[in-house]
Amino acid sequence: MAEKKIALDKRDRLAVCWRSTFIQGSWNYERMQNGGWCYAMIPAIKKLYKTKEDRASALKRHMEFFNTHPYLASPILGVTLALEEDRANGAAIDDTAVQGVKVGMMGPLAGVGDPVFWYTVRPMLGSVGASLALGGNVLGPILFFVLWNIIRWAFMWYTQEFGYRAGSHITDDMSGGMLQYVTSLASIMGMFVLGALIERWVSIKFTPVVSKTTLSDGAYINWDKLPHGAAGIKEALTEQANGLALDSTKVTTLQNNLDQLIPGLMALLLTFLCMWLLKKKVSPIVIIIGIFVVGIVFHVIGLM
Known about the structure:
This protein folds into 2 domains: 10-196, no CATH class; 209-300, no CATH class. Helices cover 65% and strands 4% of the residues. The chain has helices at residues 10-19, 34-48, 52-61, 73-88, 95-134, 139-170, 178-196, 198-201, 230-241, 254-261, 265-279, 284-300, and strands at residues 209-214, 249-253. The longest helix has 40 residues, at 95-134.
């Protein structure tokens, strides 16, 4: 007689979705949203795994680094639920495959969430609520609160369900290597996106002055000859837009020379250094504290 398959029902998935609302409740600088992610997965882990050892292993697996837009974590949760369900039923899915799919999806989706929710949906709803509130209508803040939560909750639930259904198909053809292919593709995409964002996220500026050059007349804004008031401000802005410098002396710093060589070079080197230290099993907390200390010392001595 075949062993009965363990399956997550709608109630289990709803519990996971509800808990994912608090995914940033234990946000930390070492592994970011890992605590909230693991908390969201607990109902599924309890349902899928029966022994203490299996549950502990699953909890440890989901305490690894995770960080994305809090609402876009839902489709990743759905795919992960499907992978865990198939793993509990005997599929050859290891920890690396689960973590690889998570890491591969969280990078691209993080870039989608901000423009959709923070820069579009929320400002639109906020403007409607604010206009009503300014007119003395108490429904303004209430409407904003209700509509925002309906939209975000509906999005989280349906995208989690979509991810759950898609994740089930990923593991249908284990012999064909479909899971390995998706894992590799997701990991490559995630690393590519994270690598492209280094220049945006990591900022290093060296302040030592390399040279000072006195500009000729007409190459800079002569502030003494500008008219007073708004007319002077307008003329200064016009001259700056036409390419005139703000000061008679052009100061070139070490950072200017580095940017002319390769923009973002030092940020990239710092990232490689952190990766090398992590590979050497150096604690992320030690690395963070070290960066703070070095940054403060370099600032005090005038290097940064």
